[in-house]
Amino acid sequence: MRPKELKLWTTGVAHLLALVPGHARLSGLSQWLRQVCPVDHFVLFVYEGNHRPLALFDTFGADKRGVYVDDYQCGPYLLDPFYLACTRGQAPGLWRLRQFAPDHFYLGEYYLTYYQQTGLAEEIAFFVDLGAGATAVLSLMRSTASCAFSRDEMQLIECAQAVVEQVIGEAWQLRQAQQPRPAQDLDFKIREAFDQFGAHILTGREQEIVQLLLRGHSSASVAEQLNISPGTVKIHRKNIYAKLGIGSQSELLGLFIRDLTGQESVAVA
Prior knowledge:
5 strands; Arc Repressor Mutant, subunit A; Tscrpt_reg_LuxR_C; alpha+beta; 269 residues; 2 domains; five-stranded antiparallel beta sheet; DNA binding; TF_LuxR_autoind-bd_dom_sf; Beta-Lactamase; transcription
């Protein structure tokens, strides 16, 4: 970044922090970050325990919000590498989606059934620890018409971490004061549906394997995760498919989504 650009960027911090906390400042944050490099879309989700992801802010038009936010909140988030990283207590910082994605991610159900609909070339995100088990993830997205974020761009964007943390932290405190979240809501039903998928037909081990397969893991990765041999995983998969009455991974997420919507599925057979 040249001195003139650096001066413009630092001056932008002062203007940003002069905005009203909440949506106005989050919008200003997205504009400020765009001074570093092009970003097509921003979305800020807060992941908190078993609650469904809360969308605090986004820059989508109404036509795209249905896929990026509404559809995502209805269940696919359970397979999102960013969400899964949060459940593992991922440290704050700037991360690429592919750093958390399992092998064969682009052949997995999360990608094939949901993520490819977004038309994204790359997604990076700031992870912000909000305390009390809540984590904010501010995603910066580039569509397939754009190139991936370069190493230099990543290094520059990473310098904004402190400002990002302050703006998001204030927005979260404001949200909690104005609209506290209920103790239980649909998120628990979604989580329960995922955890109990096939419970009346599959063994406990088979359920573990199904959940890993849905999250994009290959048989080799499943074997590594569960400390069993790839051959054992292959046998389990064959038995799982026979019990569920399916022939491939591509039908698993469909069964899960039908569970969520109350339609006939194996989980309630």
